[in-house]
Amino acid sequence: MTSGVPGFGTFLIWNYRKVLEILSISGPSQSRDTIDVTSHGSTDKFREFIAGPIAGGEVSLDGNLIVGDTYGQIAFHTDVQGGTKRNCFIVMPMAVGGALSFEAFAKGFEGSYPFDDKIGISGSLQVTGKPTLLTAQSTGMTGLTGYAWEDIEKLPLVIAETPLPGTYAYTAPVVTTTTHVKITPVADTHTIYAQGVLLDGESDKIAL
Fold first, then answer.
1. Do the Cβ atoms of 204 and 175 come closer than 8 Å?
2. 88: how many CB neighbours lie within 10 A of its CB?
3. What was the pLDDT predicted at 2?
4. What contacts 29, CB < 8 A, 6 or more positions away?
5. Cα torsion 115, 24, 167, 132: sign
6. What is the dihedral of CA 74, 77, 78, 81, to 10 degrees?
7. Best CA proximity match to 108, nearest among 124, 129, 95
8. Number of Cβ atoms within 10 Å of the Cβ of 121
9. Which residues fall within 8 angstroms of residue 117, CB to CB, at 6 or more apart?
10. Which string of b and e fits 145-177 if b means at least 16 CB within 10 Å?
11. What are the φ/ψ torsions at residue 86 (nearest 5 degrees)?
């Protein structure tokens, strides 16, 4: 019986932000150059080769155009024009427990506007350096706490969900007079980013 799993649920992280409504992701298309070292002494006149440099390749993607995806699609479009190198992750479904990590430049961004179908986008990323295939699944957060400010009063948040791998959304009730909330995620031996910001030690709080 096959151990294959569907690709549904795979997503792209660009500069530590999830890119919304991606339909398909392909790559990186890694490849190695070969160097012809054939000589007069090559056995039986067969060509001989040695390994040359490796190219990290490209990633191609297609999706629905979401103009409100400020830190995903719109940031990607901005980076095509700006030429900024970013950290990137292709995160596979939880059933796989794997991801690809690499640095890349946003290389292409194209819209499509058919009269009888949705507005779509396609894009490409140029990988720079070595992509890393991650096969050990994270144990996820070990804790999640927070506070809500109602006028000048600071009250603890009651978060409904227990932090677990594969749980990406957490809810907590607040009243209409709440001015802002702060969340503190905790994970042993992990590096945590929230809204694209690296959280570290006592500063592990970010206004949402």
1. no
2. 24
3. 85
4. 57, 58, 59
5. negative
6. -170
7. 124
8. 22
9. none
10. ebebbeeeeeeebebeeebeeeeeebeeebeee
11. -130, 160
Predicted TM-score of the model (pTM):
0.77
**117-136, pLDDT tens digit by residue?**
999 999 999 999 999 999 87
Amino acid at 129: G
Q: How far apart are CA 72 and CA 17, in angstroms?
A: 6
Burial class (CB in 10 A: 0-12, 13-18, 19+), 96: middle
Query: Partners of 143 in the beta sheet?
Result: 186
Range 12-40 burial, b when 16+ CB lie within 10 A, else e:
bbbbbbebbebeebebbeeeeeeeeeeee
pLDDT tens digits for range 77-96: 999 999 999 999 999 987 78
> Helix (H, G, I), strand (E, B), or coil: what is residue 113?
coil
For 164-202, give the secondary structure using H, E and C.
Answer: CCCCCCCCCCCCCCEEEEEEEEECCCCCEEECCEEECHH
Which pair of tokens denotes residue 67? 């103009």
Task: Give the 3-state secondary structure of residue 149.
Answer: strand
The one-letter amino acid code at 81 reads Q
